[in-house]
UniProtKB/TrEMBL annotation:
Name of the protein: Bifunctional ligase/repressor BirA
Role summary: Acts both as a biotin--[acetyl-CoA-carboxylase] ligase and a repressor.
Pfam families attached to this UniProt entry: BPL_C, BPL_LplA_LipB, HTH_11
UniProt KW keywords: ATP-binding, Biotin, DNA-binding, Ligase, Nucleotide-binding, Repressor, Transcription, Transcription regulation
Family designation: Belongs to the biotin--protein ligase family.
Catalyzed reactions: biotin + L-lysyl-[protein] + ATP = N(6)-biotinyl-L-lysyl-[protein] + AMP + diphosphate + H(+)
Amino acid sequence: MLEESVDAKILEIMRAGDGFASGEALSRELGVSRTAVWKHIKGLRGQGYRIESVPAKGYRLVTAPDLITPAELTRGLATRRVGGRVVCLKETDSTNAVAFKMAEEGAVEGTVVIADTQSAGKGRLGRIWLSPPGVNLYCSVVLRPPISPVAACQLTFLSVVAVARTIERETTLIPQIKWPNDILVAGKKVAGLLNEMNAETEKVNFVVLGIGVNLNMRLEQLGSTLRHPATSLLEASGTPVRRIAFARTLLEELDGLYDRFLIEGEAPIRAEWLERSAIGGRRVKVNTGNGEFRGTVQGVDAFGALLVQSDQGALETVLSGDVALLDGDA
């Protein structure tokens, strides 16, 4: 039995009882030694669980921490693939980097890597994603879809829509999507997505969905060097977000959307993406890295490219770059 599975079972048993769970009963039900039970109890305490220990009575769970742990995240998790294995790290350079390496080594589809903080969180185009500890969600998910490499970019629709749905379920806020992979609340960025792929000529080996959501950051933690205005769900709503609940809901949304993607393709998910878009029909300035132009957004194609009718009349297909809204600009 995996270490995190034993932890989860111990917590489940303690929560199910009205009082104490004896070491002997835990040992018998888990099929491990009492010494092993004690080691797991010690490990749980190290994660921040307050567990009371009384001779001749056993162990009793008093309080659980506001930490994302495998045991907490998988408790009641209703998914088929996503979250089948969960790895939670106190600190890492990048959850995407960890998940990518795990996938190269054979990690099963649905493996999730979550960190409390990142020292080198990844954003688009090589940018840094600010990742202070104890406040946000930094998450990466390994998928192995049976699709061609050219279709892998369609998974961006899936992860962006999943985050938008989760924000609606866990807060009173109304999120909007900004191409290609940002989530806005009241016009300010609250989440970003970064997908990375390993593929051969005609086959995707795996895709890592990287997701960063500003949950409970304060304004002073957002930094002063950001390219675009940013916020957090706490700052936007005035109400703290339970990180475990948010992460669990997100994994369930990802799982359901991935199932739909495998059965129906990208069309229905892209349709929802378009409904939630903050830039559909809007005038924008597009910087492709090789120059910039202005025009009106017409939509996105089946592979996630932005379609913009330029002021010069041509319908431009934008594969990558930065897009800025031109509110009221002629």
